[in-house]
Write a structure and sequence with these properties.
By secondary structure, the chain is mainly beta. It has a single domain, classed as Jelly Rolls, CATH 2.60.120.10. It is built from 1 helix and 10 strands, in the order αββββββββββ. A 6-stranded antiparallel beta sheet has the order 1-2-3-10-5-8, with no helix packed on it. The protein has a 4-stranded antiparallel beta sheet with strand order 4-9-6-7, with no helix packed on it. A hairpin with a 3-residue loop joins strand 1 and strand 2. The longest helix has 4 residues.
Length: about 130
């Protein structure tokens, strides 16, 4: 059984803070469950384009509002609390936070832990 509280992870290598977001990485590859789960907080007015070439991402919005654009189809979705999206085909998307947002993200395969977005907006496979 794995039980963790975010207070236990604060200030450890499982936290990451950038100019645009902060994240707590609750589950990583070393936990042995086959996926990674992160709690992500974006600041308002963040405009991020990414495509996870090495991971499938599933995201659930807990707080805030944003738009999510599929850059292949041009389809734009309004993101608000209760919205889930999945990128099973490694879609390239543009995420724009209209307000501060809080998301739960799940990655398969699991992140190793130190990954950060590369210049193409993807995580390398470590």
């Amino acid at each position: 059984m794995i039980v963790k509280h975010k207070d236990q992870l604060a200030g450890t290598s499982r936290t990451l803070t950038t100019a645009d977001f902060s994240t707590i990485r609750f589950l990583l590859r070393e936990d042995g469950v086959g996926l990674a789960m992160t709690d992500v907080k974006y600041h308002a007015n963040v405009d991020a384009t990414y495509r996870y070439k090495n991971h499938v991402e599933v995201v659930y919005c807990l707080e805030g509002e944003a738009t999510l654009e599929d850059l292949e189809t041009g389809e734009v979705h309004h993101i608000r609390p209760g919205t889930l999206w999945a990128l099973p085909n490694h879609e390239q998307v543009r995420y724009v936070s209209l307000t501060p947002t809080r998301l739960i993200s799940i990655f398969v395969p699991a992140l190793a832990g130190p990954e950060v977005h590369d210049e193409e907006g993807s995580f390398p496979l470590l």
